[in-house]
Amino acid sequence: MKRLLSFIVTVAVLTGVMVFSTPGLLDKVRLGLDLKGGFEILYQAEPMETGGALTHSSLQKTAESLEKRANALGTSEPEVTTEGTDRIRLKIAGVTNEAEVRKKMKEPAVLTFRSAAEGDAAGTYSKIELVGSDFVEGAAEVERDNLNQPVIGIKIKDKDKFAEITKRLLGRDLAIYLDDRLLSNPEVRAELTDGAASISGGYTLETARELADTINLGALPLKLTEKYSQSVGATLGKQSLDQTLLAGLVGSVIILLFMIGMYRSPGLLASFALILHTWLLILVFVIADFTLTLPGIAAFILGIGMAVDANIITNERIREEMRSGKSILSSVKSGNKISFRTVMDSNITTIIVASVMFAFGTGAVKGFALVLIVEIVLSIATNLYFSHWLLTLLVKSGKLSTPKHFGVKESEIRAL
Amino acid sequence: MRFKKELDFVHLSKFFYVFSIVLTIMGLVFLAFLGLNYSVDFKAGSNVDTALSKNVTVEEVRSAIGGVGVPHEPSITMGEKRINIRYEQELNDNQSEALKAAITKLDDKASFEINTVDTEMAKELAKNAIYAVLISCLGIIVYVSIRFEWRFAVAAIVALMHDAFMVVAIFSIFRLEVDLTFIIAVLTIIGYSINDTIVIFDRIRENLRFGKQKTYEDLKVLVNKSVSQTLLRSIYTAFTVFIAAFFLLVLGGESIKMFSLAMVIGLLFGAYSSIFIASPLWLLLKKRQKPAVNNNPAKV
């Protein structure tokens, strides 16, 4: 009686927890770009100048400033990760003005001070005097000039260098460029020794602020080229999600019905273990904050089909033991014991392959492999340990007393 | 459903060997002459997948996207409220925006998925996939050799390479598109198809403990017995995964269609090779070992 009670309590409590928590959990699952829409770009980073160094810290720095740019554009939760030694992966979800964002992300935003070299036509300046790294980072701000017009103030790191330049260019133009766009070309009227300069050019407060932001976001330390890009419209993503979930639901229901029809009471327990397994998997996704992608869902669904194998192998073995004439309890005991080894061996080989995929894969492959590994580990816990335990409990309580409960006909049983 | 009369799997396997060898050769020929039908994942270019709210004709699409500014004609595949446009050349930002605008003119509810890959990247993906397959196999050989013996490991590897190759061969023969998810599918098949093989090998190992098998006949009987004892298990376990893969194929999202198809094919071959290829192959290897075991029977 005690055993039956603990069986009922276990099942009831777990069912209750699952029913109440599932809707909330599902809402919290983080969906990948292929499911909610958005775009992903893989950049290959190169040093700005040929022969320059590409270090881990410069890659990290580039990734950080990409993230800053994405945030500045008001996108929700941009995800920027470095990959290998020279790659950066950028993921932005739910963007409507994709083209603009993409352009902004890549924009180098290099601020330069230039002067006219010999032979330059009037109004063009080709000699670079100061480059982005000569300016104090993040120091651009909106100021007002004598006439109360908004200007952008910038600071130069090396005051002496600036003093030298302004002295040399006294009476000539010092042009300020953002990338290849001429912002202003003021004439140097005095030697500037305080290391501060300002950009004027009839800006409104708003355009001045925008320009200051662009300058502050600064130049990316590395040159980026797009290696791979994927952009998914929100509707298409939702469609994929719905279709695939439906496929999973239909497949799972058929698998559950198959288990119950084939193995009766143990099949019912197996189905319960399988549902628990799926719930735990969702829980792991939420807690670990994994991103669920389309291949991830596919792994999820295939995993359900694979996880149930453990129960099929166990139940077939129990039936076999029963047919050989053993009592129900000893059939269940030896069935569980022997099948445990078989199931472990076959699961470990799958884990080996999934680990290799995880180690070698990128993007979607990695996501798929991760789901597969988590799923197998959970499956060992639920479909092996937990369902063996449940079955033993139920048999010991005396509730499963005839071979019929296991879908075994009396006529099939041989005398021992 | 139980089999009254035990089937002679070892004998039957001879026919299946022939079948598999013929298919392998066909696959090799197709691969050598036609190769695989690579998607943009493996070939530089852009792939544009569009979901529409109504059906349009190929001509409408072709004329609409004529002004995008790509020098070559893309290949266009129409589906139910869906268009797939594939360019051999990578689209730049302006071109993809122009393309989107052109199609949005046809249907303002259009939703896009645009994938662009450059060749270098794709080659790297393929290279990694091949490494992954080789290292996976190595891992499985080591594990199975430790848990069982090397003959089981060799037989298992042959069976699973067979499964993986069959999928590749069928994709080559029927010119089905090979994308990144195809690689995932093949790797999954390698990981999963060995499960059934392990179940049968486990049974052979167990049965080996019970009796002394002196002759090849004894071993053959043992293999047949082991296969038929685990036959239902093999079929059921393959069936449940098959169901999952099958519904993914029929109902699942468009971009994992090829993945699901590869899985379905691989699962069928996996179940087949576990039953008809792996165990008889082990027997073949074991047979060669026999003389070594009975080295000095005359003295007894």
From TrEMBL, chain A:
Q: Does the keyword Translocase apply?
A: no
Domain Protein translocase subunit SecDF P1 positions: 60-116
Per UniProt, what is the membrane topology? Multi-pass membrane protein
Biological process (GO) annotations held by this record are:
intracellular protein transmembrane transport; protein targeting; protein transport by the Sec complex
Annotated ranges, domain SecDF P1 head subdomain: 126-221
**What Pfam families does UniProt report for this protein, alphabetically?**
SecD_1st (PF21760), SecD_SecF_C (PF02355), SecDF_P1_head (PF22599)
Q: What is its main location?
A: membrane
Taken from the UniProt entry, a GO cellular component term is: plasma membrane
Keyword vocabulary terms for this entry: Cell membrane, Membrane, Protein transport, Translocation, Transmembrane, Transmembrane helix, Transport
Q: GO molecular-function annotation terms?
A: protein-transporting ATPase activity
Gene3D superfamilies to which the protein is assigned, alphabetical:
3.30.70.3220, Multidrug efflux transporter AcrB transmembrane domain (1.20.1640.10)
User: Does the keyword Transmembrane helix belong to this entry?
Assistant: yes
Q: Where is this protein found? A: Cell membrane
Q: Boundaries of each Protein export membrane protein SecD/SecF C-terminal domain copy?
A: 227-395
Check the record and name the InterPro entries matching this protein.
Answer: SecD, SecD/SecF_arch_bac, SecD_1st, SecD_SecF_C, SecD_SecF_C_bact, SecDF_P1_head
Q: Per its UniProt entry, which superkingdom is the organism in? A: Bacteria
| Positions of transmembrane segments | 245-263, 268-288, 294-313, 343-362, 368-395
Protein task: Part of the Sec protein translocase complex. Interacts with the SecYEG preprotein conducting channel. SecDF uses the proton motive force (PMF) to complete protein translocation after the ATP-dependent function of SecA.
Alphabetized HAMAP family for the sequence: SecD_B (MF_01463_B)
Which family does the entry's similarity section mention? Belongs to the SecD/SecF family. SecD subfamily.
Q: How does it assemble?
A: Forms a complex with SecF. Part of the essential Sec protein translocation apparatus which comprises SecA, SecYEG and auxiliary proteins SecDF. Other proteins may also be involved.
According to UniProt, the name of this protein is: Protein translocase subunit SecD
User: Its encoding gene is what?
Assistant: secD
TrEMBL record, chain B:
- Has the keyword Protein transport been applied to this entry? yes
The answer on whether this UniProt entry bears the keyword Transcription reads no
Name the GO cellular-component terms.
Answer: plasma membrane
**Gene Ontology BP annotations:** intracellular protein transmembrane transport; protein targeting; protein transport by the Sec complex
TM regions (residue ranges): 12-36, 129-146, 153-174, 180-201, 235-253, 259-285
Q: Where is the Protein export membrane protein SecD/SecF C-terminal domain?
A: 102-287
| Similarity remark | Belongs to the SecD/SecF family. SecF subfamily.
Role played: Part of the Sec protein translocase complex. Interacts with the SecYEG preprotein conducting channel. SecDF uses the proton motive force (PMF) to complete protein translocation after the ATP-dependent function of SecA.
Q: What is this protein called?
A: Protein-export membrane protein SecF
Q: Which organism is it from?
A: Paenibacillus albidus
- Upper taxonomic lineage: Bacteria, Bacillati, Bacillota, Bacilli, Bacillales
